[in-house]
Amino acid sequence: MKMKHKVKIAPSILSANFARLGEDLKMVDDSGADWVHVDVMDGHFVANLTFGPPVIKKLRPHSKLPFDVHLMIEEPEKWLEAYKDAGADRITFHIEACRHSHRHLARVKELGLASGITLNPQTPICEIEYVLDQCDQVLIMSVNPGFGGQKFIEPILKKISDLRQMIDNKGLETMIQVDGGISLENAQRIVEAGADVLVMGSAFFSTDDKKELVKKVQAL
Ligand code: DX5
Ligand code: ZN
C-alpha cells in the first residue's frame, strides 16, 4: 500500500439536533474535524427526508470547514448548481441514481467542486471502474443509506480493500471515504482496509469529548 496521508474525519450533521443546527455545526468546527458531512435525502432515493439548498445556505456562514455534501436523491444532475450556490465544496452522488455519471462528474468539476461518487452496499466497484479517474473521492456506503445509527456491514471491509487496490493499480489519488456505522471500535480496521476519510454521525454526536475522538481518528 502507498504512503498514506493523515486520516480525515467528516462528522455527519444528520445526527445533530435539527432544532439547533447552527450550534451543533459549531461543535463540529471546534472539534478539529476535517470536513462537515451533509446528508441530503429526498424521500425517494432513500426512505427519509432531510434538508436541501436553502438550509445548507443558512448553515454555510456558521462553519469554516469544507461542506462535503452527500446527495441521496434521484436525478442529482438537476441539482448540482443549486448545491454549489448553497455552499457545497464537495458533491457526492449515487451511481444508482443516474445513468450518465461520467457527464455529471465532469459537471461537478466544471463547477469548481471536488467530485465524488458513492455506491450502496449491493453495488460492485466494477460499476465505477471507468469513471474512477474523474473522482476526487469514492464514498463506500457501509450501511444502507437513509438513517444514522445503523450497524456497519462487515463484508464491506473487503470492498474497501478491493477499491484501494483498483485505485493504486491505476496510480490515482482518489480518496476512499466510508460512511455508516463507524465508531472508534471499528475505525482502525476500516483504515487498515484502505479508507482515507471516515464519516461519523451517531458516534460523533453521542461522544462528550469530541476533540479527543477526532484526534484519535486522525492518528489512526
Ligand atoms: C446514512 C448517512 C450517513 C449517516 C451516518 O444514510 O449517509 O452519513 O449520517 O450515520 P452513522 O455514523 O450514525 O451511521
Ligand atoms: Zn452520508
Concise account of the structure shown:
The protein is α/β, with parallel strands linked by helices. The chain contains eight helices and eight strands.
What do you see in this structure?
The chain is of the alpha/beta class. It has one domain: TIM Barrel (Alpha-Beta Barrel), CATH 3.20.20. Helix content is 32%, strand content 19%. The chain contains 8 helices and 8 strands, in the order βαβαβαβαββαβαβαα. Helix 2 packs parallel to helix 3 (80-86) and helix 5 (156-169) runs parallel beside helix 6 (184-193). The longest helix has 14 residues, at 156-169. The model has no long low-confidence stretch (mean pLDDT 97). The structure holds D-xylitol-5-phosphate (DX5) and zinc ion. Zinc ion is lined by residues 12, 37, 39, 70, 179, 199.
Radius of gyration: 16 Å
Strand tally: 8
Name the CATH superfamily classification: Aldolase class I
**Protein structure class:** alpha/beta
**The CATH architecture:** Alpha-Beta Barrel
Query: What's the CATH first level?
Result: Alpha Beta
Distance between the termini: 15 Å
CATH domain topology: TIM Barrel
Coarse morphology:
globular
In what range is the share of β-strand residues? Answer: 15-25%
- How would a textbook summarize the main sheet? 8 strands, parallel
Heteromolecules bound: D-xylitol-5-phosphate, zinc ion
Number of helices: 8
Task: Report strand order across the widest sheet.
Answer: 1-8-7-6-5-4-3-2
Low-confidence stretches: none
The overall pLDDT average reads: 97
How many domain regions? 1
Amount of helix = 25-40%
User: What order do the SSEs take from the amino end to the carboxyl end, as H and E?
Assistant: EHEHEHEHEEHEHEHH
